[in-house]
Amino acid sequence: MKLKDSKHDEVVASFITFMQNIRELLSKNRPRLLKFINKQGLLFHKDPFGKTYNAIIFIGKHGKCKMKEYAEFFHLSPGTATGSVSTLIKRGFVQRANKSSDRRVVEIELTKKGKLIYDKGMEFQEKEIKEILDVLTHEEMESLINILHKLNYSFDLFTDKK
After folding, report:
1. pLDDT digits (tens, 9 = 90+) for 134-143
2. Which of the residue ranges 4-13, 51-60, 148-157 would you say has the lowest mean pLDDT?
3. Is the pLDDT assigned to residue 36 strictly greater than 80?
4. Element (H, E) at 64
5. What are the two backbone dihedrals, phi and then psi, of residue 65, each rounded to the nearest 5 degrees?
6. Whether the predicted pLDDT of 94 surpasses 60
7. For residue 128, which of 59, 25, 16, 49 has the smallest C-alpha distance?
8. Domain 5-127: which CATH class?
């Protein structure tokens, strides 16, 4: 079902604004998030640009990932990706998981410490988003769930094409 052009434009504009607001919220709350993680007894090195946290979230979301996937996602050369992952390993957040018979394929996964940071970060973000969603009625929540499922499915199809 295609929306009329004017309605379609309104939805696109509203969606872009919503995404910008989410990015801004996450960016503004990053210092609070890192403070929250540190309060859990996890020594988290100062990371002004959030590179370490972003890496932990990416690896945590995927469970295990190949170094090639990591490098591609963050637009890093293989050498830079290796250095980045080595730093994460030294800090105790990530470990290599070479279980492949092909020694050229290097997989990485979170350590217990990395998983704890991932879980605490997700817990913090869920709390923030739940507060934002409190303005919705039960029916609106049901509609939003259905819409988000469709959008996520569409997103998966769109990214598979590229």
Report:
1. 999 999 999 9
2. 4-13
3. no
4. strand 64-66
5. -145, 155
6. yes
7. 25
8. mainly alpha
